[in-house]
Design a protein that fits this description.
Blueprint: E1 4-6, E2 9-10, H1 11-18, H2 38-41, H3 43-59, H4 67-86, H5 90-102, H6 112-135, H7 137-147, H8 154-158, H9 164-171, H10 181-197, H11 216-222, H12 240-245, H13 269-286, H14 290-298, E3 326-329, H15 332-355, H16 361-382, H17 388-408, H18 418-437, E4 446-449
Antiparallel strand pairs: 1-2, 3-4
Helix pairs in contact: 4-15, 4-16, 5-9, 6-7, 6-10, 7-13, 13-14, 15-16, 16-17, 17-18
This protein binds zinc ion (2 copies).
Length: 450
């Protein structure tokens, strides 16, 4: 029986949504407010699919998910969604503004013609946004976050930039001249949902569908740092745009090495977001002459003075085999500790999403700060930073003090159901004790390049 898993989403519906297998009849809405939050409704399906992929990778001897890398990807995903709690997504704000003030015609929201036109339009404009995100250095500063994982699995899809939303908004503006915002919002979400499942090594080839669709095989090439993979396969749902505009590259026998040409080598979630921006800032001031300074911002990330716009392909380093990846390992208890605290932070985030309408801005900001502090601290533990134990002890004590102040004043933050707060308090008191006694971060935590 196909019973609803979450709200009114059934298993079959949830699965179809990942594949863009929806019809205009079931996914057309008159008003923007009526459009479902497809991305949030997909969360249980994301988690289920990640578990299934893990088992399949185990059975077929493919590289399995690593806790540190998965943590890094999932926290970037949640981080990128946090800003949308305070302000509506930038894409939508700009789209509504342009549509309300400048639309030339208003296509009927309930016509299949409008729906299919918008499907093609969103995918076509996504291609150009994505291409610009790779070919314009200042846009790459945001998009490189998505490419910073050296693994390739479903969690990689969640690794997103916090600010990218603000740059992609501009590319979708031509649609706002005619297509109602509700229909645009449906396709903007489905285009993102489709791109989740193609981040996998489990699916090798889709046969004839490889000609039209962006598939796991095509997207693996897109995530490669091998010279033959650079600046290829920008498509979202369809691969036809790459075939038309000369950026298509099929997967070859050469093993794909994933990640950035200059590896990030950090699990710090804030540094992951900012590293390339800092690099651009430095290069900008070091580069003489206004023309070259502008080129640093607007040409490709591989550009240097006197070189072609996208840099010289001969400058790209060849891949050394066996492929090296940044890695670190914690003790068994260290892993368990990180898992528990990350899970508590994810639950707090989910509750924040569910209750954001009834929660005060101050409390929402409190939960957001707690989340960012938690992922930074876990990143420091994974990176084996000398200050990680102090930072984590401080975080645990701060949580307990804030909790004490709030409960002494009988203030309900509305974040945690009362039944859970006892368990959470227990976890934080136990954790603080562990750090004070020095039982965590044993000498087993060594960084290694794998
Ligand atoms: Zn990309
Ligand atoms: Zn990707």
């Amino acid at each position: 029986m196909d019973k609803p898993l979450l709200g009114n989403v059934t298993f079959v519906q949830g699965a179809r949504r990942f594949l863009y297998a929806v019809s205009p009849k079931e996914a057309s809405f008159a008003k923007l407010d009526d459009v479902p939050d497809y991305l949030n409704e997909a969360v249980p399906f994301f988690l289920g699919a990640i578990a299934v992929e893990y088992i399949l990778a185990f059975l077929t001897n493919l590289p399995r998910l690593r806790l540190n890398d998965a943590f890094s990807s999932i926290s970037a995903g949640v981080f990128s969604q946090l800003s949308k709690i305070i302000i509506l997504s930038a894409e939508l704000v700009l789209y509504l503004f342009v549509y309300n003030n400048f639309h030339l015609v208003s296509l009927p929201w309930d016509s299949p013609g409008t729906w299919y036109l918008c499907f093609i339009g969103v995918d076509f404009l996504y291609y150009w946004f994505h291409r610009a995100a790779h070919e314009i250095n200042i846009m790459w500063a945001a998009h490189q976050v998505h490419h910073s994982s050296e693994d390739y699995n479903l969690t990689t899809a969640l690794r997103q930039s916090v600010v990218q939303n603000y740059t992609s908004a501009i590319f979708y503006m031509p649609l706002a001249l005619a297509v109602p915002p509700s229909i645009f919002f449906v396709h903007a979400q489905f285009n993102m949902l489709y791109q989740f499942w193609i981040h996998t090594e489990v699916v090798r080839s889709l046969g004839p569908l490889e000609y039209i669709l962006n598939t796991p095989s095509h997207h693996r090439v897109h995530h490669g740092r091998n010279p033959y993979c650079i600046d290829k396969n920008y498509g979202g749902t369809l691969i036809v745009w790459d075939r038309m505009f000369g950026t298509f590259q099929a997967e070859t026998d050469e093993k794909v090495a994933y990640g950035l040409v200059h590896p990030l080598a950090s699990w710090d979630p804030i540094w992951t977001q900012l590293c390339h921006l800092c690099h651009i800032w430095k290069t900008f001031w070091e580069t003489p002459g206004l023309k070259d300074k502008l080129s640093v911002l607007l040409k490709g990330p591989g550009w240097t003075s006197g070189k072609p716009r996208l840099g010289d392909p001969a400058d790209l380093p060849e891949i050394e085999y066996p492929i090296q990846r940044y890695d670190s390992s914690l003790s068994y208890w260290g892993n368990l500790y990180v898992l528990v605290h990350f899970a508590v932070a994810i639950v707090a985030y989910q509750l924040l999403i569910a209750r954001r309408m009834v929660m005060s801005q101050l409390h929402a900001l409190g939960v957001i700060s707690y989340f960012i502090f938690t992922i930074s601290s876990i990143g420091a533990i994974f990176d084996n930073k000398w200050y990680a134990p102090y930072m984590e002890l401080f975080r645990c004590l701060l949580f307990l003090i804030v909790d004490l102040v709030l409960s002494s004043q009988n203030l309900d933050t509305g974040v945690l159901p009362t039944g859970y707060i006892g368990v959470i308090r227990g976890i934080f008191i136990g954790s603080a004790f562990l750090w004070i006694s020095g039982s965590l971060m044993s000498s087993k935590n060594k960084l290694k390049i794998q």
